[in-house]
Amino acid sequence: MFISDPQLLPSALGKAERTRQRILSSALTLFASIGYEHATLRQIAAGAGTSLGLTYRYFSCKEELVLAFYNGLASRFIEHVQQIPFGTLADRFEAAMLYKLALIEPHQDLIGVLLSSALNPKSPIGVLGEQTADIRRRMQVAFEQIVKGSQDAPPGALAQRLATLLYMTQRGRKSHAWLDRPCKVGPRVLSICSANPDRFRWYGKTRGHFCGRPWRKQQ
Fold first, then answer.
1. CA-closest candidate to residue 74, choices 49, 104, 95
2. Which position among 85, 169, 180, 205 has the lowest Cβ density within 10 Å, counted as fewest Cβ atoms?
3. 20 contacts: CB under 8 Å, gap ≥ 6
4. pTM
């Protein structure tokens, strides 16, 4: 679960989880306002109304707070994927991307602050680093569900390879969103997902370049 506003914390949450969410909310607000590097756990604890010792019980370092932010966004996206209606791959992928853009939109300032570290694979909070490997795996599975749950999904291994391509594509487009550039689900992305269920064009990366491979769905 990820909740950015402590006023939205549901009473159904246990006391421990409410405390954890309050600390996380304090940290994200502080990161966005004064910067990730300048924020301290003592300041985060003060903002959450908790002691420093209690804060350490939930998060031992700032990196864990950022990873919790990543995990929260990923969990909400994955949950949404389960609710996307059955339909064409183009429609399902577009629905997923529109939700993802809406999901990160409220956090543009925070993401901008984290950007340099997030894009550094050697950083503890790098989105391509070892610490985020499990998040990437979960997201890959979500994109496999988007593909395999569509009415015009390709057969067998093609579905998994297409899911990998779509996942890599959206990661690149998300970087544009993080840089505050216009970012829409464009025709190049959606052209790989024909709305015609009788025909599908799959693009796979082969020997360093992209090639098209037509495939006609069997009746």
1. 104
2. 85
3. 58
4. 0.75
- The string of pLDDT tens digits covering residues 66-90 is 999 999 999 999 999 999 999 999 9
| Structural domains in the chain, sorted by start | 1-60 (1.10.10.60), 62-216 (1.10.357.10)
Name the token pair of 39. 């924020």
Amino acid present at 33? S
Amino acid identity at 90: A
